[in-house]
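step: validate -> pass
step: tokenize input -> pass
step: predict -> running
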Amino acid sequence: MSDDVPLLDDLMPWAVSGLRLGRTWIAAPDPAALRTRWSVLAGAEGAERERLFRPTRLRSAAAGAAALPGQRSASTAGFADAPGPCPEPVRVLYTPFDEQWLLPDQRLIDASRPQLWRVLDGDQLFTVETPAAGTGPGSHARSGAPATGSARPAPGPGLLVTRHLPAGRLGGIRPLHRRPGGAEPNLTPGLLPLLADRYGGPVAPQDVLCWILAAGRPGPRGHEVPLTADPERWRAGLDLGRRLLAVQVRGVAGGEPPRLPGGRRPYVRSAIRAWPDGLDWDPETETLSLGSGTVSPVPRTAWEYEMPGAPAASGGAGAGTRVLRAWFDARCAHRDPGAEGLDALGPAEWPQAWTSELLALVTTLALLADLAPEREAFTPGPLLSRAGLTAAGVLPAPDWSRRPASVLDHREEGPGGQFALL
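step: predict -> pass
step: emit ->
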């Protein structure tokens, strides 16, 4: 596309770098395993506790840290002095399409991005850029540097959207709202009124997100988002984007999650009774085997669906890795002979909840693959140029819109019980 097409960075100005956990044991597919790990660490002493903790330059067992916004902190003193009770694990997006659990204690997280926790609630949606869409939040738009690396696009949306906090090996994060309760959209000021006037009806923040899912594409300057000048093309893109969003977040506005039509819906054919020794797929019967357990039908498109984006950092799943394979490997990681310390603590038997998660994941991947040809063929028609948006006063986004809003409506506990100053 031309340089006159606006970027995601133009339209959703506030972006936050991904979390850096610093230690793998604080996240896991099973919340009970996290509670066990906490208990073992809290019961250890001296050098053994330090070894299990896995200190980094930013976090050690002796260092205190502020409580995470919106979370009940076990303690804000150093873990070595006062570990406190185990905080309730929270659901997070750990890798593309893999929802896991995280211990929400800032003493354990190298870079927790508190500004994201402040706007995390039931009204929030997080857009996650994969590395192929940009090297970091807004880096190309402001520096003019080309995107690094190239990757074959995944067959689904160019962006990930999740209701959960993105907390693993992921790219830049853009919340849809700058404040809790769905208040103040993270959109360049003036965009919504301009689009409403152009299309002849109200335009909601989520409508813009749906359009981005349908029409946005990774480009050499960053994630490009052509805005149509045609109300009919807007409505067509909105319809496609709403379906893409519903699949990614597994249902919107309290509705039922999308399902595959009858006859294509995956079911458990044989229960997983012992820990599966591997993951295999039979193309003739479309059967996914986990040891003696089987799930079918699992279409080829779901089995072959790969991670979006460029290769991840060492130890992470990157492009070229099949999503289902990565999902399974993550749940067997604690049984790996090389697993050490707290990472080696996990369930002894395959949790039934994981089988339900697997069925939902197969459905998500199959539906995204079904929508891929329609999305690939979608064209926005005549465009609203970036120059036109500039002439209308919508671009460039003001500097304040690139910074987090002040959302502090209560005092937050800092290290050692002191209140945090923001």
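step: describe -> The mean pLDDT is 89.
step: cleanup -> pass
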